[in-house]
Amino acid sequence: MAAANKDLTVGIAGLGAIRLRAARAIDRGAVPGIRLVAVAARDPLRARERLASLKNPPPIAFLGELAGVIVECTPEAVFPEVAGPTIAAGRIFLPLSVGALLSHMELVERAKITGARIIVPTGAIIGLDTVRAMAEGQIIRVTLDTRKPPAGLAGAPHLVQNGIDISNLTEPKLVFKGSTRKAALGFPANVNVAAALALAGLGPDLTKVEVWADPDVDRNVQTVNITSDAGEATMTMRNVPSPDNPKTGRIIAQSVLATLRRLTAPLTAGSLWP
């Protein structure tokens, strides 16, 4: 393990279920060489209460004041308040609101100037290593079929704006078919996986998405189909929903920890570094 004074420091923006699980794991030393130094939250008092059980509760900071490696999972409207200062300061930025990143791709150009690094955790999808490797050649087609229990899609802007009723379904219902860019706008809490897939491969306009409300599934099911000059692949992930938030998967917090671990580990497996 790295010496304490050489540990990478981490700041977490937002303290929902995902970030709290990650904060607890970092606090108990689950990721060697990583130290939690600050958290930013909309409700500082509640955040202090939730962090009180940690061995070393970090201070509560304002969004633009976070230091170290920044882990972000905030509402889309707040995303620029976290991302902007992080990139300007040349820090490592781990966004979980990947769909919001698609609307702020100028941050990538800014990062080239400041030396910041934007690292998108794999999250709830599978096979990004494969997609990135195929992107070194020619990708012909990428599609994502995402199926969720109706409760996991309830309240999505696309459903509300189009008057789509998914209550009392007795069979799967296709509620969206189109580009990742449009899917990210219509389902900001549900299709961060599509945004991550798009960034790894063909981009948000050519990566196609189908969103299904499916009463027959009790997990969030993501199926990727990709055709390239290197071959074809079909990859399916069946994620256990988070007990605190059915719109996201239990694996998201684990993905954050795995990404942080790659920043300090002497050996990692996979083609992406970190």
The stretches of 5 or more residues where confidence is low (pLDDT under 50) are: none
Gyration radius from CA atoms, angstroms: 19 Å
Count of discrete structural domains:
2
Number of strands: 12
Distance between the termini: 18 Å
**Average pLDDT reading:** 90
Order of helices and strands, N to C? EHEHEHEHHEHEHEHHEEEEEH
Helical element count? 10
Task: Give me the CATH architecture of the largest domain, please.
Answer: 3-Layer(aba) Sandwich
Class of the largest domain in CATH? Alpha Beta
Beta fraction: 25-35%
Main sheet overview: 5 strands, parallel
Q: What strand line-up does the widest sheet have? A: 2-1-3-4-5
CATH homologous superfamily caption of the largest domain: NAD(P)-binding Rossmann-like Domain
SSE class: alpha/beta
Q: What name is given to the CATH topology of the largest domain?
A: Rossmann fold
Write down the overall geometry: globular
Helix content: 25-40%
Structure explained in plain terms:
With 274 residues, the protein is an alpha/beta fold. It folds into two domains: 4-119 and 252-264, NAD(P)-binding Rossmann-like Domain (Rossmann fold); 128-239, Dihydrodipicolinate Reductase, domain 2 (2-Layer Sandwich). 31% of the residues lie in helices and 26% in strands. It has a five-stranded parallel sheet with strand order 2-1-3-4-5, sandwiched between helices. A five-stranded mixed sheet has the order 7-8-6-9-10. A two-stranded antiparallel ribbon has the order 11-12. Helix 3 (79-88) links the parallel strand 3 (69-72) and strand 4 (92-95). The model has no long low-confidence stretch (mean pLDDT 90).
